[in-house]
Here is the input.
Amino acid sequence: MAGLNQRSRQCSWCQIKEVFPVPEIRPARSSDAPALTQLTRELGYDASQAVISARLMTLLTSERYEILVAEGESGLLGWVVVERRIALEFGERAELTGLVVSSEARRSGVGRGLVTGAENWARRRGLATVFVRADVTREAPHPFYESLGYHREKTQHVYEHKLKRGDPGPGSPRRMPAQSRL
Ligand SMILES: CC(C)(COP(=O)(O)OP(=O)(O)OC[C@H]1O[C@@H](n2cnc3c(N)ncnc32)[C@H](O)[C@@H]1OP(=O)(O)O)[C@@H](O)C(=O)NCCC(=O)NCCS
Here is the structure.
C-alpha cells in the first residue's frame, strides 16, 4: 500500500505543481515477478517472466542480496538490487547491481527512495561503502547518483566472453610437453 506522505514536482513545461503520494519501499516477493518483468524491459533487458521468476527466487533465498521495490497506488514503480560483495583488493562492500524506475514515475523521488533503502540494508550489515556502475550511454543515472552524494571514481570498459561447453578456453593451463612431466 502506498504511504500517506506526499512529494511534489514542478512540471517542466506547464509550470503546474504535480503532487505524488510517496511510494512504499519494501522487499520484493515472488508474486512481484510479472511487474518486475515489465520494469526490467524498461531497463532494456527482454527476459521472460519465467526467467525473471527463477532469478527472483535466487535473489530472495540468499543473504547476499536484497531486492527492494517501490510500490505506488497503481502498482510497482521501480526496483533495485543490492549485493554484498568481497574482493581481495578492497574487502567487503555493497554494489547496486540493477536499478530502474518506470518511465511514468521518474523525477518524483522513487529512485532516491530505492537507493536509500539499499543503503540502509548495507548499513545494517556493517558495510561502509556502496558502489554502482552506470553505462556511460545512459543519461539519467549520472546526475542522479551525483545528486545522492556518489562521486565518479573511474571509467572502465566491460569485456564479455561467451563460454562454449567443453572448451577449456585460452586462459586454461597448457598441457606440459611429455619430457617436462618426467
Ligand atoms: C536513473 C533513475 C533510476 C532515476 O530515478 P528517478 O526516480 O527518476 O530519480 P529521482 O526522482 O529520485 O531523482 C533524484 C534526483 O536525481 C537527479 N536526477 C534524476 N534524474 C535526472 C535526470 N534525468 N537529469 C538530471 N538529474 C536527474 C535530480 O537531482 C533528482 O532530484 P529532483 O528531481 O528533485 O531534481 C531513472 O531515471 C531510471 O530508471 N532510468 C533508466 C534506467 C537506468 O538508467 N538505471 C540506472 C542503471 S545504473
About this structure: Residues 26-163 form a domain with the Aminopeptidase fold (CATH 3.40.630.30).
